[in-house]
From TrEMBL:
InterPro entries in alphabetical order: Thioredoxin-like_fold (IPR012336), Thioredoxin-like_sf (IPR036249)
SUPFAM superfamilies linked to this entry: Thioredoxin-like (SSF52833)
Start and end residues of each Thioredoxin-like fold domain: 51-218
The family this protein is said to belong to: Belongs to the thioredoxin family. DsbA subfamily.
Protein name: DsbA family protein
Length: 222
């Protein structure tokens, strides 16, 4: 957990390829009080000025939260194999609401997050799908400039124009808020690996769809 928080502690400086990422082991200390007070309420994200990315019936009594990183291969696998079944059988049927929260291991995951959020909630999950599907290509494109350009291509493919993309990728204030929000959530839920899932307030590690469905069915029957 300390490693994840330290890695995600960020200072932001503008660069030609977006943001230059700097790891600071103690940079998160000023956010400690916030991390202790975050809660799973509709107002928690607003404390940091962040929009929760949620799909499903808002009135569903059961919430599933996924913590994942756009640069995590296991997250890409879960996104391809687990989530489509979860969406079809539980989200689209109104049984649960599903929230996706980014985890930041590195600067490239942060850049991907800024691109994914650039189109707002309406495009977020579609862009996330493109990012995960292309993870093996864009994340290995080469240096910072090449990776940033591959992410821009994904944004343009989703219908975001170049000026809007640059505004998103150079929004230092937004990135600082996202990192603070991530740190608070990760601390509150004890997130130490990705993907991790919080089901009805309890944390679970990555699992098969069959195991996931069994947990959901048990909780829905309560």
């Amino acid at each position: 957990m300390n490693r994840m928080i330290a890695i995600a502690a960020v200072l932001i400086a503008l660069g030609g390829a977006g943001y230059w990422w700097v790891s600071q082991p103690d940079a998160g200390s000023g956010m400690a009080a916030q991390a202790q007070t975050v809660s799973d309420t509709p107002d928690a994200a607003s404390e940091f000025g962040i929009t929760e990315m949620t799909i499903g019936d808002p009135a569903a009594t059961l919430e599933v939260i996924e913590y994942a990183s756009y640069t995590c291969p296991h997250c890409a696998t879960a996104h391809a194999n687990l989530l489509p079944q979860l969406k079809a059988n539980y989200v689209d049927t109104g049984k649960i609401r599903f929230t996706y929260r980014e985890v930041y291991f590195d600067k490239y995951g942060m850049w991907a997050s800024l691109v994914a959020r650039c189109g707002g909630p309406e495009k977020f999950f579609g862009i996330s799908d493109l990012i995960y599907k292309g993870q093996a290509e864009w994340s290995r494109a080469g240096g910072d400039g090449a990776i940033a350009e591959e992410l821009r291509k994904i944004g343009r493919l989703a219908g975001i124009d170049a000026d809007q993309l640059e505004a998103c990728l150079t929004d230092g204030e937004k990135l600082e808020k996202l990192v603070s929000w991530y740190q608070a959530n990760a601390t509150a839920h004890g997130i130490d690996s990705t993907p991790s899932f919080v089901i009805d307030g309890k944390k679970y590690a990555n699992m098969s769809y069959a195991d996931f469905a069994a947990i959901l069915d048990e909780k829905l029957a309560e």
